[in-house]
Design goal:
By secondary structure, the chain is of the alpha/beta class. The chain has 2 domains: about 325 residues, ABC transporter transmembrane region fold (Up-down Bundle), CATH 1.20.1560; about 130 residues, 3-Layer(aba) Sandwich (Rossmann fold), CATH 3.40.50. It is built from 19 helices and 14 strands. It has a 6-stranded mixed beta sheet with strand order 8-11-12-5-13-14, sandwiched between helices. The structure holds adenosine-5'-diphosphate. The site of adenosine-5'-diphosphate has 12 residues, from α11.
Length: about 600
């Protein structure tokens, strides 16, 4: 059997069973509680059978004797049976919820921990909304299923077998009558569930896409607004939402048939049992009490069949969800450090690329034969058209990606023998769109070095020219920032991230120069803070405006993944090559704009 899950991945029965086994491995941590749950399931199923049986037998007894002696005792007995039936149902539920929540807690923790071990490539390739959907929806799905389905499946099977055994024992003939509806039920359910199963999966898939889209359009609000793309986004949303609606509509419509069908078949079965039972009773083949037991059991017999098929759907969707979660848990982690990799603690800051080639996803080489050297404390600017490969070179320096060939050296040591974590501790980033976390300004600056004292945080803010604006904020350093950093301006965000970098005190600095226009005063402040920050550190600057990098010790001109020119500004200008043209062009545009 091959099924398509909503990931679009083919899942065969083998992997379905494998996933179930894997879930079982989590559950088996709680064997003691599971045993209790199972005992309670057995008890509730047995008591559920005993109730109607007692009623039937009581009717027979009192019909035969025509007295009411001892009826009170029977009633007390019946009350006790139904009381303990409820208690056992409640207890099995109570323990199972505990097991389910613990299991889901473990899976969620594993998933989240794993996310932080995955290479950047993993995130580059996925929509964050889709990932969010896995962490929330898929895990929630597993949780709901574990809460209810495990018990349901057990108790349905037990009730089914138990009812059948007692019915056969009481009257094989009436059992046969009761069973006449089973083939109809089976066919009807199959017809419905094949449709609902497919539709549910479609609904999940569409929902995942819709969630991803919504997430994207919320985080991209500014871009959407600034390009006046609202109508397009809304149209796309409607299209995706329509798909969810359609699949959801039909899934619900078909699923809605199930109780109606069951009800009808139940009534039909009741009619058959009553009619046939009446005839059998007249012929003295069964007692009236047995008919009562059968009418009740007939209902009990169809209910678990109904439950089982319902649970099967939920189970399918939960297993598909669990599979998506396990896919991430099993995904390849950021490549291990070489076995003998060492931690570096005091990097001087020499960086060297020797014949480095690199391709994303084993495609065409994005950067080719890159070689350069940056001595400690040097300012290296990367310039070139968009898509030339500047960010890719930075990705290699930070070791978010590893070269396919060639070597990268830090302080003359091959990067491969340095642990990634220790290397990244020696680096800091000041990016165009500085990322701020939800938390106070103080916490956001302290992100650079968690053990920094309040005084060190404030000193860093002073050095970053951020102190005065922070002091003007309502709660100063304790002002809460929102996750998207709204509440502070673009320029202020940059100053905060410079403060963060100053506090981190790295040997290597990566700067992505702001392209957005910032008011001149803030820009001066940023420039001044950056100058201070860069002092004594090897800095790599992705430059967009050439006038700001004239002081750089070295300019690497990147085009089509290769370094076509390198040297300081005046040398490159003398050469009258690509850089010269680029520079002239920018000046021309500037002049044109000024006019
Ligand atoms: P720049 O920073 O100079 O604008 P990039 O280094 O970002 O250029 O991009 C260089 C090339 O690599 C581009 O063609 C871009 O499409 C491709 N690229 C960038 N990031 C990825 C990625 N994560 N996966 C695949 N290709 C990428």
């Amino acid at each position: 059997m091959k099924q398509k899950t909503h990931t679009g991945k083919e899942v065969d029965r083998g992997s379905f069973i494998k996933t179930i086994r894997r879930i079982w491995r989590y559950l088996s941590e709680y064997k003691v509680f599971l045993t209790w749950v199972l005992l309670m399931v057995v008890m509730s199923s047995a008591l559920g059978l005993l109730g109607p049986f007692m009623i039937g037998r009581t009717i027979d007894t009192y019909l035969a004797t025509a007295t009411t002696d001892g009826l009170a005792l029977v009633l007390v007995g019946l009350a006790a049976v139904y009381f303990f039936h409820s208690i056992s149902l409640w207890l099995q539920n109570y323990w199972m919820i505990g097991i389910a929540q613990e299991t889901v807690f473990t899976i969620r923790t594993q998933l989240f921990t794993k996310l932080h071990k995955l290479p950047i490539q993993f995130f580059d390739k996925r929509q964050s909304g889709e990932l969010m959907s896995r962490i929330t929806n898929d895990i929630e799905n597993v949780s709901t299923t574990l809460n209810s389905s495990v018990i349901q499946v057990f108790s349905s099977l037990l009730t089914l077998v138990g009812t059948l055994v007692v019915m056969l024992w009481l009257s094989p003939l009436l059992t046969l009558v009761t069973m006449t509806i089973v083939p109809i039920m089976f066919l009807g359910m199959k017809w419905i569930t094949t449709r609902t199963g497919r539709l549910y999966k479609e609904q999940q898939k569409n929902l995942g896409e819709l969630n991803g889209f919504i997430e994207e359009s919320i985080s991209g609000q500014k871009i959407i607004k600034s390009f006046s793309q609202e109508p397009k986004v809304i149209a796309e949303f409607l299209e995706k939402s329509e798909k969810v609606k359609k699949a959801g509509y039909w899934a619900q419509v078909y699923a809605g048939f199930i109780p109606k069908l069951m009800n009808m078949l139940n009534n039909l079965s009741f009619t058959f049992v009553a009619a046939a039972g009446g005839i059998f009773a007249l012929n003295g083949m069964v007692s009236i009490g047995t008919i009562v037991i059968f009418t009740e059991y007939a209902r009990q017999f169809t209910r678990p069949l109904n439950d089982l098929s319902n649970q099967f759907n939920t189970l399918l969707s939960a297993v598909a969800g669990a599979e998506r979660v396990f896919d991430i848990i099993d995904d390849r982690e950021e490549a291990e450090n070489e076995i003998d990799a060492i931690d570096i603690t005091d990097l001087k800051g020499k960086v060297e690329f020797r014949d480095v080639n690199f391709a994303y996803d084993r495609g065409e080489d994005i950067v080719q034969n890159i070689s350069f050297q940056a001595t400690p404390g040097e300012k290296v600017a990367l310039v070139g058209p968009t898509g030339a490969g500047k960010s890719t070179i930075i990705n290699l320096i930070t070791r978010f990606y590893e070269p396919n060939s060639g070597v990268i050296l830090f302080d003359n040591q091959d990067s491969q023998i340095i642990t990634r974590a220790s290397l990244r501790k020696q680096m800091a980033f000041v990016l165009q769109d500085s990322f701020l976390f939800q938390g106070t300004i103080r916490e956001n600056i302290r992100y650079g070095r968690l053990d920094a004292s309040d005084q060190e945080v404030e000193e860093a803010a002073i050095a970053a020219n951020a102190y005065s604006f922070i002091k003007r904020m309502p709660q100063g350093f304790d002002t809460e920032l929102k996750q998207d950093g709204s509440g502070v301006s673009q320029g202020q965000k940059q100053l905060l991230s410079i403060a963060r970098a100053i506090l981190a005190n790295p040997s290597i600095l990566i700067l992505d120069e702001a392209t957005s226009s910032i008011d001149t005063i803030t820009e001066l402040k940023i420039q001044e803070a950056l100058e201070l920050l860069m002092e004594g550190r090897t800095s790599f600057i992705i430059a967009h405006r050439l006038n700001t990098i004239q002081q750089a010790d070295q300019i690497l001109v990147v085009e089509d993944g290769g370094i076509i020119e390198k040297g300081p500004h005046h040398e490159l200008m003398k050469r009258k090559g690509f850089y010269y043209d680029l520079y002239q062009n920018q000046i021309k545009t500037k002049v044109a704009k000024a006019l």
